Amino acid sequence: PLVLGIETSCDETGVGIVRGQTLLANAVASSLEEHARFGGVVPEVASRAHLEAFIPSLERAARDAGVRLSDIDAVAVTSGPGLAGALLVGVAAAKALALALDRPLYGVNHLAAHVAVDTLEHGPLPQPCVSLLVSGGHSSILLVEDVTQNVQPLGSTIDDAAGEAFDKVARLLGLPFPGGPFIDREAKAGDPAYVTFPRGLTSPRDLERHRFDFSFSGLKTAVARWVETRQRAGESVPVADVAASFQEAVCDVLTRKAVDACRTHGVDDLLIGGGVAANSRLRAMAEERCAAAGIRLRVPRPGLCTDNGAMVAALGAQLVARGLAPSRLDVPADSALPVTTVAV
Ligand code: ATP
Ligand code: MG
Ligand code: FE
Asked: In which residues is substrate bound (predicted)?
C-alpha cells in the first residue's frame, strides 16, 4: 500500500511516503533554530511552525515520491506521546486528508514508529527484538514482540532523557544548541578517561529496582561541579576531554543496560533509534559490546533516527499489511500515550 505518514510530536514537521516497506519520500522541516535562543523546544513556537511548514512539506513529499495525493491508500499520524499542541496540528491535518481523500486513518505511537522505521533500511524486523530509544525527549528500553501490536517497556529514564543531558552539558561547555552533535565532534579530540563521571543507576542496590532504567541528572550535575571547580581555581576547562568523558559515561550505561536487556530476555537482536543514535561513540560501543555478546545490532541511518514522517508511514504500512483495523476519525492528540498502545 501507498501510505502517507505525518509526524509533528516535537520540533520536526515530517511528511513521509512509503510503498510497502520502500521509502519514497521523507520531507522534514525543523523549527530547531527558532528554539535555539531558549536552549530548548518552546511548545507554542513548535506548534506555529508546524502550521506553517505542513503544506510545503506535504507538497514536497508528494513531489519527491512522484505521486498524487489521490494515489495514497492510507494516512498515518503520530497520535502521541509528545507536545500536545504540536501533536494537534499533525492530527488535525491527517484527519482532514483522510476525510478529503476518503482513506483510512491510523493514529500511531511515536516510539513504535521509531522502531518500525528500521524496516525501511534493513528489511523486516526480527521479532522479538529489544529496542533502545534515545532522543531529546525519551530514553527507554523496549521489548518488541511485534511492533504492530505488542511493545512492552522494560525501563526508561527517571529524570532527564539522554539527548537532554547532551544538550545541557553542551550548554555548560559553551557549545551551541542542540549540543549532541557538537559534543560528539569535540569528543573525537578528547580523552574519554580524563574524568570518571558517575554511571547512574548501576550500583547493585539501584539495579535491584532500576535494572533497565536510566538517570542522567546526577551525571549532568557532576559535570557542572567539575567545570565550576576548575573555573573557580582560575584554570581553563579542557572542553574536548570533558565532552569525551561525559559521552563515555552516557554510552557506557546505555549500551550496558541494552545488552543486559537482550541477555535477560533471551533476545538476539538490538535496535537503536532516536536522535542520540546518531552519536558515533554510541554506535561504536554498541557494535563492540553486541559483537562480544553475540547480539545482532541494527541502527538506522541518522536521517531515519531523528523524528521524521517516514517512520510513521512505515508503521502505518505494517498495520495495513497486517490487516489491522484503522483508527476512528476521532483520533486523539495524546501527549502521554502509553508505549504499549501501538495504534489508537
Ligand atoms: P523526541 O524525543 O520526541 O523524539 P527530539 O526532537 O528531542 O524529540 P530527535 O530529533 O530524535 O528527538 O533527537 C534530538 C536529540 O538528539 C537532541 O537532544 C540532540 O542533541 C541529540 N543528538 C543528535 N545528534 C547527536 C549526536 N551525534 N550525539 C549525541 N546526541 C545527538
Ligand atoms: Mg527533534
Ligand atoms: Fe522521536
From this structure: 133-137, 167, 180, 184, 279
